[in-house]
Design brief:
The structure is a single chain. The chain has 2 helices and 4 strands. With 101 residues, it is an alpha+beta fold. The chain has one domain.
Length: 101
């Protein structure tokens, strides 16, 4: 769990969040919404996003973003809008980051 941890200046490149897949590139966004958001790329350019306890591929998030109606309903509230902003920020990072060969 990274909530409350200070990752200022930390590099997660080469780390592993699941004990198996080496992270090629990563960034942590905190303070956007209730939980830290980690956007990361593992081998073969697979893009993943961890938001709170949910760690899913970018495709899985896009297919079912509002996966937790009890905590984050899609109701245009400040809470739901901030969650969506955190995800959109992660997606934008994927668009601009470059993977070195």
């Amino acid at each position: 769990m990274l909530d409350g941890a200070s990752l200022d200046g930390a590099s997660l490149d080469g780390a592993s969040l699941d004990g198996k897949n080496k992270i090629v590139k990563a960034i942590v966004f905190s303070g956007i919404y209730k939980y830290s958001t980690i956007a990361y790329i593992i081998k073969e350019n697979e893009k993943r996003v961890k938001m709170g306890c949910f760690d899913r591929s970018l495709r899985e998030w896009e297919d079912d973003f509002w996966n937790n109606d009890s905590e984050f309903p899609n109701n245009n509230s400040k809470k739901s809008n901030l969650r969506f902003l955190a995800f959109e920020t992660a997606k934008k990072w994927f668009e601009v980051v470059k993977i070195e060969s």
